[in-house]
Amino acid sequence: MTHDLSFWSLIVNASLIVQLIMLGLVLISLASWWVIVKKALVLTSAKQAANQFEDDFWSGIDLASLYARISHQKEEVSGMEAIFLAGFQEFLRLRSQPTVDPESVVSGAQRAMRAAGSRELDHLEIYLSLLATTGSTSPYIGLFGTVWGIMNSFRALGLAQQATLAHVAPGIAEALIATAMGLFAAIPAVIAYNRYAHEVDRLANRYETFMEEFSNILQRQSYSLRKSRAEVARTPAAQD
User: Is the CA virtual torsion 8, 151, 23, 142 positive or negative?
Assistant: First the structure.
């Protein structure tokens, strides 16, 4: 008796448990590839947006003009633009209050930027946990299918009157397919997760550096404003 050992035939003739495991691995693999493609687009767009904003920010443009331009954008603001918008908006709000000292103005802007930065990082990190889970669990899911298939093969072998390799080979082959599918789902997910996690960390460092540099600029502007107010307040007294 000959057995069809083609890939598709082994899948079709596998036991129900092994077929369900294979189907689950296929769905997991499709989901991870969807995340891989989506995160590649999102991170590429985030890096390009950061480069463009840094070019605008350090071009010598007036911060108020840059703030007005970003505020009136029709598309959703994200990345460094969102951090800048949150920090400068809070800076303007606190600076308009005469009783607020410069340190409080800058610290308020920093808190607003940190909150905006956390939201941006959460957006960049979304779905990365799916890749990590796929990479860590898919091999074990495939291994479970392999163990189950081999167990069924040996059970059938025990019931056979004459034990030959032809009785064992199909069951072992279909069982090993589950392991191969588990590795096929896990390997790209692990590679993508490590790469994307590194890129998110690099963007996080860029955001943190920008917040520090922007805070220094706001601090200088805040102290300049206090100095101007002090000079204006002394002018009438000097004239009297």
Answer: negative
User: For residue range 93-127, what is the model confidence (pLDDT) as tens digits?
Assistant: 888 887 778 788 889 999 999 999 999 999 999 99
DSSP codes of every residue in 20-43 = HHHHHHHHHHHHHHHHHHHHHHHH
- E strand or H helix at 206: helix 165-239
pLDDT tens-digit profile of 79-88? Answer: 899 999 999 9
Using DSSP's 3-state secondary structure scheme, residue 238 falls into: helix
Which has more pLDDT, 158 or 86?
A: 86
Please tell me the predicted confidence (pLDDT) of residue 240. 47
Per-residue burial over 86-106, b = 16 or more CB atoms within 10 Å of its CB, e = otherwise:
bbbebbeebbeeeeeebeebb
Supply 25's token pair. Answer: 């691995």
Query: What is the total residue count of the chain?
Result: 240
**DSSP classification of residue 79:** T
What is the identity of the amino acid at 200?
Answer: V
**Letter for the amino acid at 97?**
Q
Of 108, 119, 55, the residue nearest 218 (C-alpha):
108
Angle at alpha carbon of residue 152, lines to 146 and 155, rounded to 5°:
140
DSSP letter (8 states) at residue 96: T
Looking at this protein, which amino acid is placed at residue 83? I
Q: Nearest-CA neighbor of 177 among 2, 3, 4, 14?
A: 14
Of residues 205 and 149, which shows the higher confidence score?
Answer: 205
pTM score, whole prediction: 0.80
Determine the Cα–Cα distance for residues 147 and 221; give it in Å rounded to an integer.
68
Gyration radius (Cα) of the chain, Å: 31
